[in-house]
Amino acid sequence: MVEQSSGGREWIAEKIVKLFEKSVLKPLKAGKVPYFEMLARTRDNVYIDQELQVIRLGNKKLRRRLNDIEEAKTFMRTVLIAAIVYEAIKHNKYPTIRDVFYDAKHTIPGTDIDTVNDQAESDNIIEDLEVLLGASREEMGLQTDVKCKVVGLMRVRSGRDIIDCSRQGEGGAYTPPSNVDRLEFLEVDAEYVLVVEKDAVFNTLNMERYWEKNKCILVTAGGQPDRPARRLVKRLNEELGLPVYVLTDADPYGFYIYSVYRIGSITLSHESVRLACPKARFIGVAVSDIYDYKLPKNVIIKAKEADIKRAKELKSYPWFQSPAWQKELDLFLERKEKAEIEALSSKSLGFLEDKYLPEKIKGGHFIV
């Protein structure tokens, strides 16, 4: 029996019980082989939802059977980790995904086989459980390292505490909880959200109090966005109506980071509706900015083969088919050059915050 003090997660525990009854107990009682049936989280089973403008998981299903030599170990891990999540909810615990890995890891008696070998395996099963249960990792109460940082003209309630995101000390920023849905927006006096790819650039803008001078909220996840950053950006856009602008390096990896914020990722396509922000706009740095702003040659970086390969991949993605993005990617492949955000400082210190960003926002110079 799961107690009502389990943080509103009782419904997930009930789903786990029903999953076990349907997929394990019922087949065993009928003398049949247990199996889990779930939507396939594979590259060939995603599509663009034209109405929502996000990557969605398709309808292709797979069966993970206990008697399949290729799938038996994954079946066992699914049972094991679902049981761990159930116990955590039952005892009102909030383990990290690292805790789950260590709790699941043991050697099968009489063998030298470990149940899980590394955390990537247990993390993958947790994502499978999200699909099987229709419950996010955050709703399960599983904790992770949070890379997301936010600063700006906003007050939020987190648990029993009220946090003023404009009063985090010099250069300080607020780190939200793993489950951003537990935040309550109390007061917001901002006109837009600026998502910054790089932590160092975020720190500079924060030290300059860009957010105060320009009435905005700054968000970063220091590279590839984690789930709290994506969820926070989406909530700020959809619940408060704030425009979202994404600032990255002028290279294919930066462009991909923008697309993860905007449309989602293939890996987490089952979570796109909750995490993606289709109204996010790419503010720069664009490849064309390198030449339009006449950046000096000594700050322009020659693209590597990996960059070129990545740019060609992006050109084929359905969500990079707009004329503006095709033009940018063609220019990159033609010139084979890239630039970091900080290269704008070659124009002058403060060029980014004093001229580049205000001009782009005022002029509506975005790429979608």
Describe this structure in words.
This protein is of the alpha/beta class and 368 residues long. The chain contains 14 helices and 14 strands. Strands 5-10-9-11-12 form a 5-stranded mixed β-sheet, sandwiched between helices. It has a 3-stranded antiparallel β-sheet with strand order 7-6-8, with no helix packed on it. Helix 1 packs across helix 2 and helix 12 packs antiparallel against helix 13. The longest helix has 20 residues. The mean pLDDT is 93.
What's the arrangement of secondary structure elements?
Blueprint: H1 10-29, E1 35-39, E2 46-49, E3 54-57, E4 61-65, H2 72-90, H3 97-104, H4 119-133, H5 137-140, E5 149-152, E6 154-158, E7 161-164, E8 183-188, E9 192-196, H6 199-207, H7 210-213, E10 216-220, H8 227-240, E11 244-247, H9 252-263, H10 272-275, E12 281-284, H11 287-292, E13 301-302, H12 305-316, H13 323-335, E14 337-338, H14 351-363
Radius of gyration: 23 Å
The computed structural class is: alpha/beta
Strand order of the largest sheet: 5-10-9-11-12
* Fraction of residues in helix: 40-55%
- Proportion of residues in β-strands: 15-25%
Characterize the biggest β-sheet: 5 strands, mixed
